[in-house]
Each structure stands twice: as C-alpha cells, then as structure tokens.
Write a structure and sequence with these properties.
The protein is an alpha/beta fold. It contains 16 helices and 16 strands. The strands form two sheets. A nine-stranded mixed β-sheet has the order 3-2-1-4-5-7-6-8-9, sandwiched between helices. A seven-stranded mixed β-sheet has the order 11-12-10-13-16-15-14. The chain is globular, with a radius of gyration of 25 Å.
C-alpha cells in the first residue's frame, strides 16, 4: 500500500511533528506526504495506546478518527481473556484491534467491515501479525448477519456518531442498533459482547436489553474507558457487574449484583477514621456504594461524597488508600497551618468550591506527597482532610 520512498520517509521522521511534516510535501516529490503523515500520527498514538503494535515494523495505521475510536491494548487483552471458543464474528471490524486479540482464543474468526480501506489495512496487518485464522469480509454486518454460520461469540462495537457527525451515547442511537438486533444476534451466537461508551447509563441499558448476563466496566489507569455488555441465554433478573481498573499490568476487580446493591445497607461515619478511601473510576461508574460499604465494612462520609473511612488498612481496596493526618475546618488558623505544606494534591468531592479556588485560598502549589480532600461529612460539615498515601499506586 505504501511506496518504498514513503516507507523510508516514515521510518526517518516518525518522531517528528506531523503538522510540520505536512507542510514539507514539495521537498519530497516521491513521497506520499499525506499518507506518511497519517502513518506517523498513527504510530505516535500507538506508542501509548497499542505498544505491541507500535513495536511491530510494517503496521499500517488508519486515519485519525479510527485510531481514536479503536480499543487500547489493555482493554483488548481484557476482552480476549473473556471470550474463548471455536468461532468468533466481529461485526464492526474497524482498525481490527479487538478482533486481532480476541481471535487468538478461537479456531477461526470473521472480521466484517463496510469500509474498504479499513478492510485492506486489516488484511495487511493480520498477515504481518501471523493471524491466518481471520476471514475478512467487506460488507454491512446487518445484511450479512443471517449468512453467518453459528458462532460461539459475536463481538459488536456500534458506531457512536450520527449521520450528521454528532456523538451519540444511547444504544438505540448507535449504528447498528443492538436493541433492534438482540434476538437475531442470539440466534447466531451463544454469547454476544457489546462494547459501549463509558458515558452510557447502565440502568437504562439493562431496561433496553433483555438478555444481559454481565456488565464489565473497564477503567485503565483510573480512567473509565468502555462498558462491555455480555448477552446470553443464561441471563436472569439479577445482573452481575464487574468493576475493573487496569493499572501497570494488574487488574483490580470488584463484583456485585444489582440485587446486592439494592438490598445492602450503607453506614455513615461520625468522624473520619485513620484511613481514607477513594474508589476507582470503575467503582464510581458502577454506583455500588451500598455494596462497597457493606462488603468491606467501611463507612461512607456522606451520601454524595463518594469517599469512605475505616480504622484499618484494607489492602485490596479498589481505589486509592490514604493515611489521615488531620481533619480541619476552614478557619484562618486552621488553613494557616496547612499553608506550611507549600504544595499539595487537592481533590474536591461534594464541595461547593473548585480546586483552583481552594488552591488560591490555601496558597499551595500543586504536587508533592501531601493530599487534601475538600468534602462534606454526613452532618453537612465542610472539612479539609489532610492525608498521605498508605500505599504506592
């Protein structure tokens, strides 16, 4: 797909600014400068998002929007750990990241994509990566679905952009509309994995899809990246939620059911204990605050604060752990004592002022080993909690 001259240009300039390179086309008449810039942008994005692919010479990268929409390597590996079997069909192939990782757990896989350029890219990359078990089909997955043989798993990542370019989140607004295809998908596969935006309302989705067995909330480095809905015939009324945070190769998981959350009782603290706990992004998205309090026997600071406290260290807490140094109010004498810290990491939880406003009032620079949480206790008392990390992340 790329000329030898263009490949050499990419190799020599891949660490340079793509925007500056785009203006130098006249200096390199034998180079397809537009395609070269696309490849350099793609490789630079892949260094962080897809390190294994970035280390592989010859990978072809798609235009920027496909790079932005594709899964990261950690989330693709997570999907591959879930789905195993004989046959896999990816109905929305795209750049092919998810298909490439998931296909390794299957005897054969089918990649379907209506964009001819993406099909060509996938064909070259899959061959380069030695993935000879993937059959590539150019076409509309909704039209081709009935032609597929029975699958063990179907993977689908509906496009989250409307025809006019607007971003959409609701399942019924995405393309293809999984809510309309649900019964057809389950006729063709034992299990269906639906990748969704992290902004999607999970409760609303459980009302729209009747066959959900499990929901996986995936965060990477404490940033919520995607939701996975596993559809199947073993679904019941009590859906299980897996809250997962992937960090430095480790996977911290907390599981609960919707019934557990509805029936658990949360306890609130009278005062802040020795340790302060901040749930990770997946827990925050899962809204499992009752279950977390009940299962781990920790007290919540306030119904809206999303912070917890206990007198003991919980080694496997799904989030950050801090040792509390002191809890203060906002009198001049109390804030003056904090100013001697010089700098601190400030977080606001259920508090009327912004981090920037507090930093200015407290005259503290950002960073260091001290942490300040501005929050509200269950008695509506506004406090500053000064702490330091109990364990390294």
């Amino acid at each position: 797909m790329l000329s030898p001259e263009t490949k050499e240009f990419i190799k020599e300039h891949k660490n340079e600014d793509p925007r500056a390179l785009a203006l130098q086309g006249k200096r390199y008449p034998s180079v397809d400068i537009r395609e070269a810039v696309t490849q350099i942008e793609g490789w630079q994005a892949a260094k962080e998002k897809l390190p294994t692919w970035a280390e592989t010479d010859g990978i072809i990268y798609p235009p920027r929007i496909s790079m932005e929409q594709c899964s990261s390597e950690p989330t693709a590996l997570y999907k591959a750990a879930i789905a195993k079997g004989d046959r896999l069909a990816d109905l929305t192939g795209g750049f092919g990241i998810d298909c490439s990782y998931m296909s390794r757990g299957f005897r054969e896989a089918t990649y379907i994509e209506r964009n001819a350029v993406l099909c060509d890219i996938a064909r070259e990359n899959f061959a380069l990566l030695g993935l000879g078990n993937i059959n590539i089909i150019k076409g509309n997955s909704e039209e081709l679905l009935h032609t597929l043989p029975k699958q063990d798993w179907i993977f689908i990542d509906p496009a989250r952009r409307a025809l006019d370019g607007r971003k959409v989140v609701a399942l019924s607004d995405c393309e293809p509309d999984v809510t309309a295809l649900e019964s057809q998908l389950l006729e063709k596969a034992d299990k269906v994995m639906v990748k969704c935006s992290p902004m999607l309302d999970i409760t609303a989705a459980t009302r729209q899809l009747s066959s959900i067995e499990t929901v996986h909330i995936i965060a990477v480095n404490n940033e919520c990246k995607e939701l996975l809905f596993i559809l199947g015939k073993d679904n019941g009324e009590n859906t299980q939620i897996e809250c997962v945070n992937i960090q430095k190769g480790n996977c911290n998981s907390f599981a609960f059911t919707l019934d557990e959350e509805a029936n658990s009782t949360v306890t609130y603290c009278n005062s802040v204990g020795k340790y302060l706990y901040e749930p990770n992004a997946a827990i925050q998205k899962g809204c499992c605050h009752r279950t977390l309090s009940h299962k781990l026997q920790i007290d919540k600071l306030h119904p809206n604060s999303q912070l917890y406290t206990a007198e003991r260290l919980i080694e496997n807490f799904p989030g950050r752990k801090f040792i509390v140094e002191r809890v203060t109010g906002f009198s001049k004498s109390e804030t003056r004592e904090l100013q001697v810290l010089g700098k601190a990491n400030i977080t606001v939880r259920n508090f009327p002022e912004s981090v920037q406003t507090l930093r200015k009032k407290l005259k503290l620079n950002e960073g260091g080993e001290n942490y300040l949480f501005a929050t509200t206790l269950s008695g509506e008392r506004k406090v500053l909690i000064h702490c330091r990390k109990a364990q390294a992340d």
